[in-house]
Amino acid sequence: MSLLLKKLYLLCSILLLAVGINAPSLALDGPPAALEHIDPHKKVITPEEYFWIEGQARFSARVDSGAKSTSIHAIEIEVEDAADTMMDNVGKQVNFNIVNEEGKTWSLSRRISSVTKVRNSQGVEYRYNVPLRLGWNGINKTVDVNLRDRSKMTYKLLIGRDWMNREVVIDLEH
């Protein structure tokens, strides 16, 4: 863009801002610098969305970029042939029920993939991780989800960065 055109654009931007029109939307050479890093191929997700678990259970979820991993409300967690320590149960079958915000319950059984140490406002706790397929808006991924009693929490499903994996952009305006 020539120097004269840039000066004209700047002058027009100042005038348009004075009357309340957002000049960056009229940019002549692409988006504003603050938006250049956003991949236009990413889907936009809001902080509150509905997800499908294993294609059968619908959950209202909180999408949280501050959470490293995904967590689901699970009760009646029973490990088959349980060992004395949680770490010794990795690889074993675990039976559990997931419960959504409406109180609907689904019984699932998976192999324990790992145990996670989680620090939160209640202190430190250990949770079993199991692979679950989570779907939203055409994106279906299997991620390790930690099992936790979330009965006192508003959202029975917390979506962490492990599911997002640089494929979505969170729109905080909604």
From TrEMBL:
All copies of domain Retropepsin-like aspartic endopeptidase, residue ranges: 49-171
Keywords, sorted A to Z: Signal
Stored SUPFAM superfamilies: Acid proteases (SSF50630)
The keyword Signal is assigned to this record: yes
Annotated signal peptide: 1-27
Pfam families: Zn_protease (PF05618)
Protein name: Uncharacterized conserved protein
Native organism taxonomy: Bacteria, Pseudomonadati, Pseudomonadota, Betaproteobacteria, Nitrosomonadales
